[in-house]
Amino acid sequence: MKGQRTERLIRTASRFLTCPSKQLSLTSLAEDFLVSKTVISDDVSIIDEALTREGLGGISVDRGRTGGASFVPRIAASVKDSLLKEIMEILNSEDRFLPGGLVYYSDILFNPHYALRLGYAMASLFNDMRPDVVMTSEVKGIPLAIFTAHAMGIPLAVCRFRNRASDGSAVTVHYPTKNGEVKAMYMGTKQLNKGKRVLIVDDFMRGGSTISGMLLVAKEFGAEVAGTGVFMVSSDPEVKAVSSYRALLRLDGVEKRQPMVTLWE
């Protein structure tokens, strides 16, 4: 269907943005729009430049025989900082801080307006790790994890704290919490395969016990952990059950009863 170039650019860009990190055939695009592959390549270059200027990422082109291209989300530092500062301003309202050193952020993570961009920001931290699956635990980590998986073009696996018959057979691990309790975590056997590279994503980390449980799940499946990303990390306690992780925000001043959400560095 041959049409105006403006329409073709918009439709091509929409295909990239709808399926980030998924390779599209330039030959198929040329056939769909009844133009040459050279014309489509020029279009892709224009789209790549525009997305880069917007700070959203860029188009990765495979110059091999397949001639495919994909949109790889890579949030620019200025765009990420602007997003996180907007969220920080909301979260640092006095009525957001709860007893027990907690902060209310559920309305942020369950709002697609924020969750989509946070997922892109999280994916940008780990694109070079090339994971096969994103793993999280129910419930509040799911929105961030699903948009991270969407940005990376990979599936999501969810660890549960209660086994459900609808999940089929499941692997169970037991892990200790900071107060000495032992909890159980379940994952359906169909969600993860041996040898897969896993990116663990969670909403909040204080001592790191939940993430340590997910690390045990990955180990039980014979999967390799490519990285761990967290929306918000509490600076207290200083020593975590997880030694390596990246985060977007940090909760400071809990022990001094002067909590404040800041950028994680």
Give your account of this protein's structure.
- There is one protein chain.
- With 265 residues, the chain is α/β, with parallel strands linked by helices.
- The strands form four sheets. Strands 7-6-10-11-12-13 form a six-stranded mixed β-sheet, sandwiched between helices.
- It is built from eight helices and 13 strands.
- Helix content is 37%, strand content 27%.
- The longest helix has 18 residues, at 37-54.
- Strand 2 and strand 3 form a beta hairpin.
- It folds into two domains: 5-73, Winged helix-like DNA-binding domain superfamily/Winged helix DNA-binding domain (Arc Repressor Mutant, subunit A), CATH 1.10.10.10; 77-263, Rossmann fold (3-Layer(aba) Sandwich), CATH 3.40.50.2020.
- The chain is globular, with a radius of gyration of 21 Å.
Mean of all residue-level pLDDT scores: 92
Q: Which band does the percent of strand residues land in?
A: 25-35%
Which residues sit in consecutive blocks of at least 5 with pLDDT less than 50? none
Oligomer: single chain
Gyration radius, in Å: 21 Å
The CATH architecture classification of the largest domain is 3-Layer(aba) Sandwich
Number of separate helices:
8
Shape call: globular
**Biggest sheet, spatial arrangement of strands:** 7-6-10-11-12-13
Q: How far from one another are the termini?
A: 49 Å
Helix content: 25-40%
Strand segment tally:
13
Q: Quickly count the domains.
A: 2
CATH class of the largest domain: Alpha Beta
- CATH topology descriptor of the largest domain: Rossmann fold
How is the main sheet built?
A: 6 strands, mixed
Element pattern in H and E: HEHHEEHEEHHEHEEEEHEEE
Structural class by helix and strand composition: alpha/beta
